[in-house]
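[job 0412] stage=fold_complex status=start
inputs:
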Amino acid sequence: MNKAMDNTSIQVSSVGIKFFLRSGPGKEDDGRRKSTKSWFSRRKKKEFWALRDISFEARKGEIFGIVGSNGAGKSTLLKVIAGIYPATQGEIRAEGKIAPLIELGAAFNPELTGAENIYLTGSIYRIPRRVIRENFGEIVSFSGLRKFINIPVKNYSSGMFIRLAFSIIIFFQPDIVLIDEVFSVGDEVFQKKSFEKILSFQRQGATILLVTHDANLITQICDRALILSQGQMSFLGPAEEAVAHYHQLIKSAEGLEADSRLPQQPPPPAEAKRWGTKQVEIKSVDFVDEEGRAKKNFISGGYFEAQISYISRLGREERPIFGVSMSTIYKLLIYGPNTLEAGLPRKIPPEGVVRFIVPHLPLLEGDYLFSAAVYDESLQTAYDHHEMMHHFRVIPSGSREIGSVRIRSEWKIEHA
Amino acid sequence: MKRYYQQIVDYRELLWNLVGTELKLRYRNSILGFLWTILNPLFFLLILAVVFSRIIKFQMDNYMIFLFSGLTSWLMIQQTVLIATGSIVNNQGLIKKVYVPKILFPLSNVLARFIDHLVLTVILFGFMLYFHMDFTWNLLLIPAVVLMLFFFSLGLSLIASVSYIRIRDVQNILSIAFQAFFYLTPILYPLEVLPASFQKVFLLNPFYYFIQSFRFPIYSAQFPPGRIFWVALGLTVIVFFTGLGIFYKREKYFVFNLS
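[job 0412] stage=fold_complex status=done
writing structure:
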C-alpha cells in the first residue's frame, strides 16, 4: 500500500443506489375489489436509480465539494456515505468517526429538554457520556441557549433547534464531516462561528464533504469538487474547473428548455402584498430573455427583461406611471425606477405590455424579489401595486466578487 | 449475531438513553409516575381475583399467587410485544435521517418493559411472603425463565416490528390474538379444569410452556414437570433466532419501506 492510499479517508467506488417508487393504492383499483392474491402480492414498483456509478476519493484534510442542481442526488450521496441508505452497488470505505451534519436535530426527542437531548444526541453519534459531561457547559454556551436548556425542545424555534444540534456534534473530534447546506440556517453570527469551527477540524486533518448548490462557496473553500447531474458524475476535479463546468451545465439546461424543467418557484414571501384601485390592473409579470422566452434564472451581466402586462380602464387622457423595484430576499431595496423619472409619462393603450429592460444585469448571484406597480401621474393613487410578489434568481457566474450589485469600478496601485 | 453484539456494545450508551427516555417520558406530568407501572397490573390482578374467587367461586389454594405468577409472565410477553411492534415505525424519523443500528429500537422497548416486569416480580415475591408460600431452591429457576421470556419476547418483537413496517394491520391482529390467547392459555385457571381431550389441544399453545415454567417454582415449589421447561427453552431458541434472522435480512431496506 503506498503513501497516497494511506492518506485517503473516504473511498467511494462505483456506487449506485436504486429506489423503488411504490405506487400507493392507486385510482385504478377503485370500484374493483382486490382479490386476496393481489392483496398480498407486491404492488407495482418503479425502479429509479438515484445515483449511478459514482467513484471518488477524498483525502485527509481536504475539503471536497459536491455540487449539483436540485434532485441531482447530492444529499442521497451524503446519506449513503453516512450509512443511512445502503448502496445497491459498489462500495464505500470511510475511515474514522463521521460527523454527519445532515438533517440537524433529527435525533432530538421533542418531549425531552435541551439538556436531556444533548446526552441523547451525543449517544447517537457515539460521543462518550464522559466527553459530553466535560463539555456540557461549553456546548450550552456555544449554542447560546443557556436560558432554555431545561425546557422541552418541542418549544424551541427551528433556529434554536439547529443551533443546539450543531453545538453537540462539533464537540467531538470527527475524522470526516458531512455537511449538507446547513449553513443556510441560523443567524449570520452563528453561521460564521460554526464555519470557523468546521475549518478548524480540517486543519486538524479531518476530511470535509460539502454538499451545496452554491458555486461560490465551492471556489472559496473547496480543493476539489464533484458535479452531479441526474444521479451521475458529470465532472470531478479542481474546484475552479468544476465550477466552470457547473455553469456550463446550468446554461445548457437553461438555454435549451428555458424554465420548463425547473421545479416550481419558492412560494412568495410573506411580505408579498397587493393593493390598488385596479383602474389599471397588472395581469402578469414575466421575466424573459432576449428572445422573449420566459425564464426565472439569469446570468450576472447578461440580458434581463421584465414584461408587465396590464389592462387599463382609465380615460384616454390619463397618463399612469409604471414602476418596478428589485430587492434582496432580505427585503433590502436595491433599485426602484419608474417611467416618470425616465421621462415617459404618457397615454397608454387600454391593453398592453410594459417592458423593463436591463441589457447588462449588474446583480450578483442570489435570489431577488421583484415588485411592479402602476400609479396615477401624481403618484398619489395606487392603481395596482404588486409588492415583492415576483421572484427571479441570478445564477453563479464563477466570479469571486461578493455582494448583491456590481458597481462599476477600477483598481489602481501606485507608488506612495 | 456477532454484528449485533458489536453494535450493542458500541451503542450501549444510546441503548440506555433510549430505555431511560421511554421510562422517563411515559409518566412525565403524572403524579404517581412510575408507580403506575405497578399499580396498573396490580389492580388488574385484584379485579380478576375478586371476579374469579368471590363471584365465580373458583376453589383453589392461594389463588392470588397462582393468578399473580401467571399474569406476570403473561404480561412480560404480551405488553412487550405489543409495544415493540411499533418500534421501527415510530422511530422512522431517526432511521431516515441518522445512522443508528436499528436493532436498538426493538431492544430498548423490550428492555424498558422488562424493567417494569422485574419490579412486578419482586412484588410477587412480597406476596409469596405474605401468603406464607414455600421458598425452595427451585426459585433459582426464575431468573432463567425470565431470561427465556426476554429472548422469546424479543424474537417475537423483532418479527412483529419488521412485518409492521409493510403491513400496518399487524398491530391490530396481534392485539386481538393476544386477547384470545389470554383466555386460551391457562392463566386464570389451571389446565386440569378442562376436559382431557381439550387439554391436548391446549398443549399446542406455545405460551402455555412459558407460563407454566414461571409458575411451577413459585406456586408449586417444584421444577416444572415433564418437558415443560425444555419445550419453552426450545421455543425461545427457535423464535429468537428466527426473529434475528428476519431482522438481519430486512433491516437494510427499512429506510426504503418506511413512509
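[job 0412] summary: The longest helix of chain B spans residues 104-130.
[job 0412] exit 0
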